[in-house]
Design a protein that fits this description.
Number of domains: 1
Number of helices: 7
Helix content: 25-40%
CATH superfamily: SIR2/SIRT2 'Small Domain'
Number of strands: 7
CATH architecture: 2-Layer Sandwich
Shape: elongated
Strand order of the largest sheet: 1-2-3
Amino acid sequence: MEGVPTHRAARLLGEARRVVVFTGAGVSAESGVPTFRDDLTGLWARFDAQQLATPEAFHADPDLVWGWYEWRRDRVRRAAPNPAHLAIAAIEARIPDSTVITQNVDDLHERAGTRAAIHLHGSLFAPRCVAAAAHPATVPDTEPGEAAQPREGRRIPPPRCTSCQARWSGRAWCGSVRRCRRRRWMRPSRPPPPARCC
């Protein structure tokens, strides 16, 4: 609604029966979450984020890639939803048939109150095992700063799947785009199809 006067935008939202909100890195950057390509520091400054966020990198060096995902999760845990996240959650609450679609892999929409954001590139907080079954896993709760000490990151062996003992992977891979099937978005319960976005 760029260029639409605020009062007109408010009237349009008030009359809407359905709204789709699409967000990208800018909304989370306002919360201090660096964009995917912006802020690689410490150990991670030596690596290309687009190369680390691939299944190939995980299979070549799982401890390195899992450590990077833990570092990223830690950065997101330190952030808080900003007014944009809260406004989007308020729109969804007022207009029940709304959909929030995000390119972001953080959980700031959910923490702001959005009920079911669709994460096009997966979520840092919804890892899966690398086995063909891709069992979902739960990321253990940790205090910000606890998982990725020292702050510049470290290698961390990935946990094992409780169902099949395969290693967990981040599953927010570069190039993982969810596809629309019969007008219903595939939920993060399925492994992402191969695609390239980066």
